[in-house]
């Protein structure tokens, strides 16, 4: 019943943008951002101009165009402009660091990068190491208050938008678009052509370019969007989770555009103040957040007036937040599990049918199974690996055949999550099958934090695990053996934290450091993270 019946020749930009204009919604507001507002006709014109600009730069079908952008009206124009001319946008996480971007841009062989001015300084140090990159396009939007830009380190978030990072030959987005026609023929893509990429990180190895097809966004919108959220043309969507996440991309772009609704964008970091101010200013009807932010918002004054439904994903929502939110705003928070690989949420609670502490039931259009090591289904109540099936699944990981075949097992996709299911069909999260941590809804690989710490001259050995904070949400904790010449102290602890902050994305640093004389190891010398987890549990129980 959920098979899409899309024609062979299908382009997602035509479906999500042009169709709205064809169906008479050209004058409808598609995007609200700060004090600016854009109709579907305006987004369409910008999309077409951007597509033409890419053509004029020599970009051809199937080539990658990277987007390193804050949440503004530029996002849907650049995203769909690339898709409409047949290129493949790669949405990059603005919170990452220069070294991460070097990997993404080279792995994807990106020829054109669109990067917001406050984020240019992340690209500057790696300019010489990007053999495939030919053009850098910078939306400047003079006078736009992007000064408290999102992402990067403090210096880029204050003072003037950095235009220093712009080099001779870099292109001004607005000037480039002004020179182009606002009409563009849709590339003759097939419904199964590559459409967009997102990078997904794993516990070992480099991040994986996750390749989504032209039909995937339509499938997610028809299933979770229509059947669970009941999205409608008169909804106003506001996602505190940024558009570069798979979660935010659905919430802020392809759900609203699927039904010709309105999306609200917040370019700044989503602090409780900014989120409440945005709700007050634009009165969204649907709000999308992550557990950490719900916790922070509960600590602050503010109103959610006008919102009909709130959604949480990225990591399990603590029941305490659910209850406090309901008591304060008389609003439900729908917790649901999604993934970059599945594009969006595939197991979710329903409005009026919420089981606190559970991720809910399988979303119409998807199937889910919990299996043991030999891929047999486990009985209700027993923990196993969560597999999911549904037509929004990514086709493969770019140039990673091994990881692709481990994860995409024919029709079924291995989430890597440990889950159990009760007799009523509710799914409950029970951890991961790898050591990956979800921190504020975003992946942290313990290996990556360990590799960073070990670079510090005073660190002899270290291991990183997840530990729960006072609200039961996971944050990285490091166990460190110092070199013989160094004594543990608060000073060393602060220094190590700062050291990680300076080279990795901010959310990855260890919130606690425990100094050890030695670390538990296997016979082959591998650090036993599970013993450290047990040690921590015993200490916390005591
Ligand atoms: C975990 C959850 C418990 C789980 C995402 C909504 O988070 C998203 O994508 P990612 O690729 O991570 C996927 C992994 O995150 N997870 C996500 N949601 C929940 N665990 N309860 C939840 N509600 O380990 C999953 O495998 O970053 C979320 C929509 C689209 C997404 N991409």
Helix content: 25-40%
Q: What CATH architecture label of the domain at 1-23 and 33-191 applies?
A: 3-Layer(aba) Sandwich
Rounded radius of gyration (Å): 23 Å
Which structural class do the helices and strands define?
A: alpha/beta
Overall spatial form: globular
Largest sheet properties: 9 strands, mixed
Bound molecules: 5'-O-[(S)-[(2-aminobenzoyl)oxy](hydroxy)phosphoryl]adenosine
**Overall mean pLDDT score?**
94
Number of strands: 27
The fold-level CATH name of the domain at 1-23 and 33-191 is: Rossmann fold
Number of discrete helical segments: 16
How would you describe this protein?
The structure is a single chain. The protein has 542 residues and is of the alpha/beta class. Among the domains are: 1-23 and 33-191, Rossmann fold (3-Layer(aba) Sandwich); 445-541, GMP Synthetase, Chain A, domain 3. The chain is built from 16 helices and 27 strands. It has a 9-stranded mixed sheet, with helices on both faces. An 8-stranded mixed sheet has the order 7-6-5-3-4-8-9-19, with helices on both faces. Strands 17, 18, 20, 21 and 22 form a 5-stranded antiparallel sheet that branches. β14 and β15 form a beta hairpin. α10 crosses α11. The chain is globular, with a radius of gyration of 23 Å. The N and C termini lie far apart (54 Å). Residues 143-162 have low confidence and may be disordered. The structure holds 5'-O-[(S)-[(2-aminobenzoyl)oxy](hydroxy)phosphoryl]adenosine. Residues 200, 246-247, 313-316, 335-340, 344-345, 359, 415, 417, 429, 432, 438, 441, 443 line the site of 5'-O-[(S)-[(2-aminobenzoyl)oxy](hydroxy)phosphoryl]adenosine.
């Amino acid at each position: 019943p959920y098979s899409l019946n899309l024609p062979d020749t299908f382009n997602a930009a035509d479906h999500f943008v042009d169709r709205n204009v064809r169906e008479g919604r050209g004058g409808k507001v598609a995007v609200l951002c700060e004090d600016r507002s854009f109709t579907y006709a305006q987004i369409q014109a910008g999309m077409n101009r951007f597509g033409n600009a890419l053509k004029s730069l020599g970009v051809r079908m199937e080539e990658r165009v990277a987007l390193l952008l804050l949440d503004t009206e530029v996002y849907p124009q650049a995203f769909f402009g690339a898709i409409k001319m047949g290129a493949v946008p790669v949405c990059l996480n603005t919170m990452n660091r220069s070294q991460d971007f070097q990997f993404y841009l080279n792995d994807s062989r990106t020829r054109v990068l669109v990067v917001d001015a406050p984020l240019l300084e992340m690209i500057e140090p790696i300019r010489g190491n990007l053999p495939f990159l030919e053009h850098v396009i910078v939306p400047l939007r003079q006078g736009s208050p992007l000064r408290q830009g999102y992402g990067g380190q403090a210096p880029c978030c204050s003072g003037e938008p950095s235009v220093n990072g712009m080099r001779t030959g870099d292109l001004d987005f607005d000037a480039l678009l002004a020179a182009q026609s606002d009409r563009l023929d849709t590339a003759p893509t097939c419904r199964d052509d590559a459409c967009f990429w997102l990078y997904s990180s794993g516990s070992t190895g480099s991040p994986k370019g996750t390749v989504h097809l032209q039909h995937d966004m339509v499938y997610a919108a028809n299933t979770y969007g229509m059947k669970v959220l009941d999205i409608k043309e008169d909804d106003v969507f506001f996602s505190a989770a940024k558009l570069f996440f798979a979660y935010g991309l659905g919430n802020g772009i392809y759900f609203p555009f699927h039904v010709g609704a309105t999306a609200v964008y917040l370019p700044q970091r989503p602090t409780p103040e900014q989120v409440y101010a945005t709700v007050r200013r634009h009165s969204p009807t649907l709000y999308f957040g992550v557990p950490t932010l719900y916790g922070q918002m509960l600590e602050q004054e503010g109103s959610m007036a006008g919102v009909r439904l709130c959604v949480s994903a990225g990591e399990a929502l603590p029941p305490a937040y659910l209850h406090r939110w309901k008591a304060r705003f008389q609003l439900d928070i729908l917790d649901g599990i999604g993934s970059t690989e599945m594009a969006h949420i595939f197991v979710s609670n329903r409005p009026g049918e919420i089981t606190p502490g559970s991720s809910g039931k399988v979303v119409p259009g998807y199937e889910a199974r919990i299996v043991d090591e030999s891929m047999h289904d486990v009985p209700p109540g027993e923990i196993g690996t969560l597999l999911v099936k549904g037509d929004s699944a990514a086709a493969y990981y770019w140039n990673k055949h091994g990881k692709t075949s481990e994860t995409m097992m024919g029709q079924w996709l291995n989430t890597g999550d440990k889950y159990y299911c009760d007799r009523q069909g509710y799914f409950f999260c029970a951890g991961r099958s790898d050591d990956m941590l979800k921190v504020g809804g975003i992946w942290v690989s313990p290996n990556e934090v360990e590799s960073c710490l070990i670079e510090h001259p005073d660190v002899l050995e270290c291991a990183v695990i997840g530990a729960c904070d006072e609200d039961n949400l996971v944050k990285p904790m490091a166990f460190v053996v110092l070199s013989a010449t160094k004594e543990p102290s608060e000073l060393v602890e602060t220094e190590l934290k700062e050291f990680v902050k300076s080279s990795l994305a901010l959310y990855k640093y260890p919130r606690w450091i425990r100094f050890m004389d030695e670390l538990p190891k296997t016979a082959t010398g591998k650090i036993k993270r599970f013993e450290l987890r047990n040690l921590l549990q015993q200490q916390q129980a005591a």
